[in-house]
Amino acid sequence: MADFKFEPMRSLIYVNVAKEDYRPNLLRWLYKTHIPDSISQFEPYVTKYAFYPSFPCPPEGERFGYAKMQLTEHHWLVSDLDPRLEIKAIAETFPMDVLVWQGNLPESMLHPENMEVKEAEKASSEDAEGDIGNEARKANVEGANPFIFAFLPMWWEEDIKGKGRTIEDGANYRWNIAIGYPEGVSKEEGDKWLYEEVLPIFKDAPEVTRILASDVKKDINGCVMDKVLEIWFENQSGWYKVAVEGTKNLKKPAWAQQDAFPFLKPYHNVICACVADFTMSNNLKNYHGYMPMR
């Protein structure tokens, strides 16, 4: 791999579950099928592959595009989208059902009367360039939510609040949020709104212990998001006090896609998850197969 560009970066995948009835299906596929599939594909050039289960959706969380399943993190040494990596001896097992469970395709795709549509979608993905998983990530149809797969620099670019916090300073309720400014709003205009009107509320709040931010590396996969932030609290109540109650007086911008903060279209221009700072699903280290309960 000496001719590959060494480009350390991390990525985040925001995994929602469209309804609770789908959670067992999605959990089973992720741990039984997807983890070993993924490790067998990218182990030579990935140094971390972890699942951070989402805390329960907080009150009013859906308007923030709350991903109710998990946050998936990868640390890459080279770009996963390099075309030379598309030749796979064994392709990923990525049925279209998964995209329905995640809300990336409408539920009607699972209805028997729409099997022709479902099979056509599957065949289209299987025939496209690259593995089916990467092609499935492009799914974005009416009535469904796009698959958000954001690449970032390996290290946070901005340390806004709480520098020096240690693991001994207490539990962290980490609110990871990705935002993409609406069409017609430049990144400069969006960032001006974010830094001058929004972040001062969070910086001044005693419930907020840490704020970090990075720009999304849009050149890797054309992700619709512009920026990823982490804003930490001690618990859900602290999050609600600041993110919901503390933003009620924010002026609605001219480009708003909804009436209340964050003013962005949930699951399209804003998506988030609240997670802990530790997980047993550090898959390259901890995965030992799908062990059913007896």
Question: Can you characterise this structure?
Answer:
- The chain is α+β, with helices and mostly antiparallel strands and 294 residues long.
- Helices cover 27% and strands 19% of the residues.
- It has helices spanning 23-42, 96-101, 115-127, 132-136, 187-204, 218-221, 236-245, 283-286, and strands at 9-15, 46-53, 70-76, 149-153, 158-161, 173-179, 210-215, 227-233, 270-275.
- The termini are far apart.
- Mean pLDDT is 91; it is low at 123-130.
**What are the segments in which pLDDT stays under 50 over at least 5 consecutive residues?**
123-130
* Helix/strand order, N-terminal first: EHEEHHHEEEHEHEHEH
Give the percentage of residues in beta strands: 15-25%
Mean pLDDT: 91
Count of helix runs: 8
For the biggest sheet, the summary is: 5 strands, antiparallel
Helix-residue proportion: 25-40%
Rg, Cα atoms, Å: 19 Å
Number of strands: 9
C-alpha termini separation: 44 Å
The main sheet orders its strands as 5-7-8-6-9
> What is the overall shape?
globular
Q: Determine the structural class based on helices, strands and strand pairing.
A: alpha+beta
